[in-house]
DNA sequence: CTGTTAGCGCTTTCAA
DNA sequence: TTGAAAGCGCTAACAG
C-alpha cells in the first residue's frame, strides 16, 4: 500500500485528480505535456494504482477465476498454463481454486465468486457432479466457459476434446492388435467426458462384432488401493488381453497389478490410457496414451472467455472440440 | 454483480446500512433480533458482499499471491495444492502467477502486486535470478515468504528443504554402490538451492577421497535437445558409472541417452534424481529419487505467511528446513 | 484541454 | 442498540 495515490500526484502537480487519472490512462483529452509531467512523477514516486478502488468504480475486476478439481494433475496444470498465458496478454489476474472433486466445495466457491470478485470463470467440474442447479444462476450473472468437464444440461460455452472418437480409436487400435477381450476402466461416470469415452469404447466393440461384457468394465473409486485390487481381480478372473484406462490415474494400478501377477505388457495385455504424463514413453514398458492438448485447451477456453468479456459476438452455447492424439508405443515387453 | 447490496437490505428492513453491516459481521452491539432479521433477508436475497468495497475500506484484500516458475511442474503444483488448502482455511483467495523462469517477468509481476492487490506473497524465484534489487523494496511493503527457491542476500522468511544433505546422501549412496565416476547435472546455478545441491555432491566426493572433475559436471540449459546432446556426450566421452540429476527434467535426457547408447541402467550407470514424479517407480528402469515434501512445503510456507498476517510473533528471518526423502529403487536393469 | 462533483459499496467513527 | 456522515481511491458525467 504505497500511500502514493492519485490525489498526491495531483497535489504535487497542481492538477486535479481527474486530470491525473486521465493522463495515466493516456486519454486523448490530455495534452502531451501534461501527460509527460504526470508520467514522470508517477514513475518517480513509484505510483501504483489501487485496483480495488478502480474495480469498485468500474464494476469490473480484471480478474478471472479458474476452478479445477486438482492443480497437481498433468492435464489441469498444463491447461492452467495456457489460461495464464492468455490472461497475461489481456492484463488480467487469475484466481485458482480447487474443488478436490467435491460438488459441495464447488457450490460454496461459486457462491463466493458471485460477489463480483471476478469478471468471468473457467471451470472443469468436479467428478461427483450430480446437481447442476448452482450453475443455473451463475451463468445468468457471469460469463462462464466449461473446459473438458461440463454439465450436459447446462447451455453454455464449452471447450472439450473428442472423447468419443479418441476412445473409439483407442479401442479399434487394440482390436487391430488382435485383442479379443478388451477391458475398460471407467471414470467420471457422471460426466459427459466419462460417458462419451465409455460410449466410444462400446461402439468400437460393437463395430467389430464384439459383444461387450459388464464384467470387463471396472468403475473407478476414490481409494487407490481399492482400484488396484479391482484391476488385479479383473486380470485374474477375466484375463483381458487389452485394457483402456479412461483416466491417467487408472493406468498406474494396471502396471502394478501386471507386475505382481507376472503379466507381460504388452505381450500378455496391452494398455492404452488417457494421459498427459510427460514420461509415459519412459514407463516400463512405454504407455500408449491418448493425449489431450491440455495447453491448447486452456488457451482456447481463455480466448473465448475474453471474447465474451470484450463483447465480441460469440454464440452463447459455442462449443469447440479439439483433437486428442493417440500415441502408440508398443514395445516387446522384454526391454 | 448481484445488485443486492447492504443499502438494499437496509432499505428493506428499515435499518441503516451501518446497522446491517454490523449485523452481518455479528457485532456485539447489535440485538439478536435484528441480527436474525438481517441474516434471514441476506440469505433470502442471496446477498454477497462486495469484496472490492470492503477491501478498499479496510485496506486489506483477503488474497495472497503465489509466484512460481511453472505450474505444470510436479513440485510446484503439489506445493500450490498445500498453499491452497491453508488459504481456504483462512478464507483467503489465491492468485497464481508464473514467471516461466524469467526474472523480468518476476519484476513486472511484483510491481503489479505492490498496489495493495494482495496481503502477502509466497514465492519461489526464477532460475535466471541475478538481481534481487526488486525484492528489497517489496519486503518492506508486504509480508513475503520464499519457498524452495530464494535469494540469499535477502533477509526473509524461508521454507526450504535440506538440499545440501540430500545431495550429499545421494552421492554417498552412489559411492556405496561402488560408483567410481559420478557425474552431476547441474541446474539452478544462480540459486542457493542449486548451489547447495552442488556443494553436497562435491563434499560427499571429497569425503570419500574422490577428486571431483569439472568435466563430469554438466550445466543445464533451456533447450531440451541440447541437454540431451550434452548428456550423451558426457556418457560417450567420460563413461560415468553414476549420475546425479539436480532437477527432474535432467533425469529424462539420461534415460533417452542411455537407451540410444545401449547403456544399461543401473548396471552400466546408476541414476539418482531430484524429482517429485509420481510414476518414478514405473520408469524403465525405476528412477531412484530425492523427493521433496512439496505439499508439506506449501502448507508450511502458507501457514507461516498467515502467522505474519495475523501478527503472531514470527522472526522476520525465520527459516524452516524440511527433509527430503531418498527413495532407492535399484533394479537389475533387465526387467 | 482541465476542473468540479458525485458515487461505486462498505466500514467506522461519533453522536444519539 | 442504532443512525448519520464521512471517506477508502478512483473514474465518469458534465461543465467550462
TrEMBL record, chains A, B:
Residue span(s) of domain HTH lacI-type: 4-58
Gene3D superfamilies, alphabetized: 3.40.50.2300, lambda repressor-like DNA-binding domains
Keyword Transcription: yes
Family annotation (SUPFAM superfamilies): lambda repressor-like DNA-binding domains, Periplasmic binding protein-like I
One annotated GO molecular function: transcription cis-regulatory region binding
Keywords, comma-separated and alphabetical: DNA-binding, Transcription, Transcription regulation
Name of the protein described by the UniProt record: Transcriptional regulator, LacI family
Source species of the chain: Mucilaginibacter xinganensis
Amino acid at each position: 500500500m504505497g500511500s502514493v495515490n492519485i490525489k498526491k500526484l495531483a497535489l504535487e502537480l497542481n492538477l486535479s485528480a481527474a486530470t491525473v487519472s486521465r493522463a495515466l490512462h493516456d486519454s486523448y483529452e490530455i495534452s502531451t505535456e501534461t501527460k509527460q509531467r504526470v508520467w514522470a512523477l508517477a514513475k518517480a514516486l513509484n505510483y501504483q494504482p489501487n485496483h480495488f478502488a478502480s474495480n469498485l468504480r468500474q464494476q469490473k475486476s480484471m480478474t478471472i477465476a479458474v476452478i479445477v478439481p486438482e492443480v497437481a494433475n498433468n492435464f489441469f496444470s498444463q491447461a492452467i498454463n495456457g489460461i495464464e498465458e492468455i490472461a497475461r496478454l489481456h492484463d488480467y489476474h487469475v484466481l485458482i481454486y480447487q474443488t478436490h472433486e467435491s460438488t459441495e466445495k464447488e457450490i460454496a466457491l461459486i457462491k463466493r465468486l458471485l460477489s463480483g470478485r471476478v469478471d468471468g470463470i473457467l471451470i472443469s467440474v468436479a467428478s461427483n457432479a450430480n446437481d447442476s442447479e448452482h450453475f443455473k444462476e451463475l451463468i445468468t450473472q457471469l460469463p462462464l466457459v466449461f473446459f473438458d468437464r461440463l454439465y450436459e444440461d447446462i447451455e453454455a460455452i464449452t471447450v472439450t476434446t473428442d472423447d468419443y472418437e479418441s476412445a473409439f480409436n483407442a479401442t479399434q487400435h487394440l482390436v487391430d492388435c488382435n485383442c479379443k477381450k478388451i477391458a475398460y476402466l471407467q471414470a467420471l461416470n457422471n460426466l459427459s467426458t466419462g460417458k462419451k469415452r465409455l460410449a466410444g469404447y462400446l461402439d468400437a466393440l460393437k463395430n467389430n462384432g464384439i459383444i461387450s461384457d459388464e464384467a470387463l468394465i471396472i468403475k473407478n473409486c476414490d481409494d487407490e488401493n481399492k482400484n488396484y485390487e479391482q484391476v488385479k481381480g479383473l486380470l485374474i478372473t477375466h484375463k483381458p488381453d487389452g485394457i483402456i484406462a479412461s483416466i491417467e490415474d487408472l493406468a498406474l494400478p494396471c502396471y502394478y497389478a501386471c507386475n505382481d501377477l507376472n503379466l507381460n505388457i504388452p505381450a500378455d495385455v496391452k494398455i492404452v490410457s488417457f494421459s498427459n504424463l510427460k514420461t509415459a514413453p519412459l514407463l516400463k514398458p512405454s504407455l500408449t496414451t491418448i493425449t489431450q492438448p491440455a495447453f491448447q485447451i486452456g488457451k482456447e477456453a481463455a480466448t473465448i472467455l475474453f471474447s465474451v468479456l470484450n463483447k465480441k459476438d460469440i454464440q452463447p452455447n459455442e462449443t469447440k472440440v479439439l483433437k486428442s492424439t493417440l500415441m502408440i508405443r508398443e514395445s516387446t515387453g522384454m526391454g
